[in-house]
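Interim report to the steering committee. The following record documents the input for GNAT family N-acetyltransferase (164 residues).
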Amino acid sequence: MHVEIREATAGDWPAIWPFFHQIVAAGETFTYPEDLGAEEARGWWLLKPPDRTVVAVDATGTVVGTAKMNRNQAGNGAHVAGASYMVDPAHTGRGVGRALVEESLRWAAEAGFRGMQFNAVVQTNTHAVRLYEDLGFRIVGTVPGAFRHPTHGYTGLHVMYRPL
């Protein structure tokens, strides 16, 4: 699937929220509260510059995914970027996630970051782990039992990193 990635606007939130809510409420891949409300979620996801939030839209203009990008830490850790991604479950397996990760890597490199770090990749989220590894990320550590998965029970959270 070919997607266009563009800056997210406040007007995109009504298209993002349904799949954002579905993904978070499932409790399988994000450490967000499963009962996170729309307004609080909007504040967590739609970031202001110099951070960035984007949407992936298909040929019809439908929002099929989104990503947020930011510095991973402040101060002396601000040279490493972080990012999070959500793909509408109706559009998984079509390259949307890959396009979003590639865009975040491009943005981070252009912004002068020295690397990108993911702090909490759920160990059982094997599709994401495989995608990140395909794009050059490596697991640098796993916190055992740090995520309570609704069906797999306590599982690990990977910290993944890639230099830029």
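The first strand starts at residue 4 and ends at 7. The committee is asked to note this result when reviewing the revised timeline.
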